[in-house]
Amino acid sequence: MPTRIDPAELPTDWWTAEHVAAYLGISASTWRAYVARGQAPAAERKFGKRVSAWQPSTVKAWDDARPRPRN
Question: Measured between alpha carbons, how far is 70 from 23 in angstroms, rounded to an integer?
């Protein structure tokens, strides 16, 4: 399983699926599946025809609000 990356190491303006995945410690395909199923926010911007992007604040707010498994 991928490990989370420090947000200070990521761009500050827009995050691609790969950036979001690195922040969350998941694969980019898992993030895309969450988005496709409506379990994560839709992309806020497209670069070209294929590159979706999210503002870091949107991803961080979603991450803070999502349910966590109980240990």
Answer: 21
Class of domain 12-65: mainly alpha
Convert the pLDDT of each residue in 33-54 to its tens digit.
999 999 999 999 998 888 899 9
Non-local CB neighbours of 39 within 8 Å, separated by 6+ positions: none
The DSSP secondary structure of 5-56, one letter per residue, reads --GGGS-SS-B-HHHHHHHHTS-HHHHHHHHHTTSSPPPSEEETTTEEEB-H
- The residues facing 47 across adjacent strands are 51
In this predicted model, what pLDDT tens digit does every residue of 4-34 receive, in sequence order? Answer: 767 777 778 999 999 999 999 999 999 999 9
Taking the CA atoms of residue 47, residue 3, residue 12 and residue 54 in that order, the dihedral angle to the nearest 10 degrees is: 40
pLDDT of residue 1: 58
